[in-house]
Write a structure and sequence with these properties.
With 189 residues, the chain is mainly α. The chain contains eight helices and no strands. Helix 3 packs across helix 5, helix 5 runs antiparallel to helix 7 and helix 7 crosses helix 8.
Length: 189
């Protein structure tokens, strides 16, 4: 049975803890098409918000009008490209940990789980409140989708999602600390 677009959104947002069983046999093409549709809408909304900000504050920032002709379409195109590239890279990193926990699905199942986990971000992530809430909401969705698509326990799915996040945060702060200490070069007077 093929679910409608709104059913996909409703499942991802509100009943992800019990609804991914019906998407277990869905094709990668269907999940990726769903993701691309939402990504295009997100990119368009983000472009409109940034264009409005540039129209309001552009003169104060001394941004030439000729530059806006390139900036505004660039925002849209880079948002689309970044969304597709980051989807596959993030899924690859997550899939390494899914393999560590002996998940039964392949890489495309991990990409499908990532497609569904991005629904909150793509719907409300362009707002200020959404930017703070949606990453955690998306990680919860990804846990349940990985559990369903790969046949791993929920604890293993939590670890497969959160270990890369913890590693990234630790590396980020190590980089910041290294930058702070490297700028503390003492030059003798």
């Amino acid at each position: 049975m093929t679910s409608s677009f709104s059913d996909h959104i409703r499942t991802c947002l509100f009943s992800f803890d019990q609804g991914f069983g019906e998407y277990r046999d869905e094709s990668f093409r269907d999940a990726f098409g769903f993701y691309l549709t939402l990504l295009c809408a997100f990119s368009l909304l983000l472009t409109v918000v940034i264009a409005a900000g540039l129209a309001a504050f552009g003169p104060e920032l001394d941004i030439p009008n000729a530059a806006l002709i390139f900036i505004i379409p660039g925002v849209f195109l880079f948002s689309l490209a970044g969304g597709v590239i980051s989807l596959f890279i993030g899924a690859a990193i997550t899939h390494i940990f899914v393999l560590f926990f002996k998940g039964s699905g392949g890489y495309l199942e991990t990409v499908r789980a990532s497609c569904y986990s991005m629904v909150p971000t793509l719907l409300i992530g362009w707002t200020i409140i959404g930017a703070f809430v949606t990453p955690y909401w998306g990680m919860a969705i990804q846990v349940f989708a990985l559990h369903e698509f790969h046949g791993i326990s929920k604890l293993e799915a939590v670890l497969a999602v959160f270990i890369p996040v913890v590693v990234f945060v630790v590396l980020y702060y190590m980089f910041i600390i290294a930058m702070v200490f490297s700028s503390m070069v003492f030059i003798p007077g």
